[in-house]
Design goal:
Number of strands: 8
Strand order of the largest sheet: 3-2-1-4-6-5
Structural class: alpha/beta
Number of helices: 12
Radius of gyration: 19 Å
Bound molecules: adenosine monophosphate, FE2/S2 (inorganic) cluster, zinc ion
Shape: globular
Order of helices and strands: HEHEHEHHHEHHEEHHHEEH
Strand content: 5-15%
Length: about 300
């Protein structure tokens, strides 16, 4: 690990990753033992490793898999679901599964097409649905905190995109911990300081079976392009990615991105689902579902 000027054998590496995770959990006051954690698992290396690490550290962590209905010839969703279920059953862990098509009527690619959101890519609709469902399950089933597997490469790419646009409100919200607020669960990213390579090495050494394929719709996305750019920088200057992210967290902490008072929005509970929204009417998720269902009814 050139960025840390550190080389470890397998045995010590498998100890080092959970030790560091515990340090980050404490440093950012994410949660403590005794709290109920819901880990959102996609079947990929990061989220399954996160679940593995939290359980090993003695935290009380259940899983949540959201079936998005993205098959695209490679059975992406069914294969990732199978791997999450296998992971849970082999370790005697509890996994909640939400099937989007069964619960809301259509799989994500159809919702995206019918609702015309996101310029031909289902990613915007997918993100909206995942955020809504993760929050719903965490809140309804009484979890104290929702944990996702975002790693340093994910966070640095998002930060790079937000910085290129100087999106103040997004920069303000990008954090390893988002505290709970009325209707919104606390959200944490315990792996946000690990490089993607470090998590891949952990999953491999731990023998975790995960899906290698990226979501088929991710190809050509900005986030992949930013990751490639940052990897080029990292190759020439090891540690750049980590410094870019950590210095940002310091700057945010010291108030660099404080919101202007007039930009503070008031939130109301959505009349349909109860989740907070800035509009007086339905939240964006419920509005999207209503549009899709009414268009599908008209077509039939
Ligand atoms: P992504 O947005 O695909 O980069 O995923 C970021 C994080 O969101 C993952 O590390 C998981 O914690 C969570 N996640 C992504 N897809 C799913 C899914 N289908 N079900 C549950 N959690 C997911
Ligand atoms: Fe959501 Fe790819 S569009 S995971
Ligand atoms: Zn709603």
């Amino acid at each position: 690990m050139r960025q840390h000027k550190l080389a470890l054998c397998k045995e010590h590496y498998l100890e080092w990753i959970p030790e560091q995770t515990e340090r980050f959990i404490n440093k950012y006051e994410m949660f403590h033992r005794g709290e109920k954690i819901l880990v959102a698992v996609s079947g990929g290396k990061d989220s399954l490793s996160l679940w593995d690490i939290l359980v090993r550290l003695g935290y009380q962590a259940d899983g949540l898999y959201i079936g998005l209905g993205i098959e695209e010839g490679i059975g992406y969703s069914s294969e990732s679901q199978r791997l999450c279920e296998k992971f849970a059953s082999e370790r005697g862990l509890r996994l909640h599964v939400v099937d989007v098509a069964k619960e809301y009527g259509q799989p994500i690619p159809v919702m995206a097409e019918v609702s015309h959101r996101g310029q031909g890519r289902p990613c915007a609709v997918c993100g909206l649905a995942k955020r809504h469902i993760m929050n719903r399950i965490a809140r309804d089933l009484g979890y104290d905190v929702l944990a996702t597997g975002h790693n340093l490469d994910d966070e640095a790419a998002v930060l790079f995109g937000n910085t290129l646009q100087w999106s103040g409100s997004f920069l303000l919200r990008q954090s390893p911990v988002l505290r709970e607020s009325p209707g919104l669960a606390r959200k944490v990213k315990p792996l946000c300081r690990f490089y993607e390579r470090e998590m891949a090495a952990y999953a491999l050494l731990r023998g975790i079976e995960y899906i290698y394929e990226e979501c088929p719709f991710a190809e050509g996305s900005n986030s992949i392009y930013y990751k490639e750019l940052l990897n080029r920088l990292e190759t020439d200057k090891p540690g750049s990615k980590l410094i870019f992210y950590l210095r940002f967290l310091d700057a945010r902490e010291s108030g660099l991105f404080a919101p202007a008072p007039e930009t503070q929005v008031t939130l109301h509970p959505c009349p349909n689902c109860g989740q907070p929204t800035s509009t007086d009417d339905l939240c964006s998720f419920c509005r999207m579902i209503a549009t899709v269902n009414s268009k599908m009814e008209k077509e039939n």
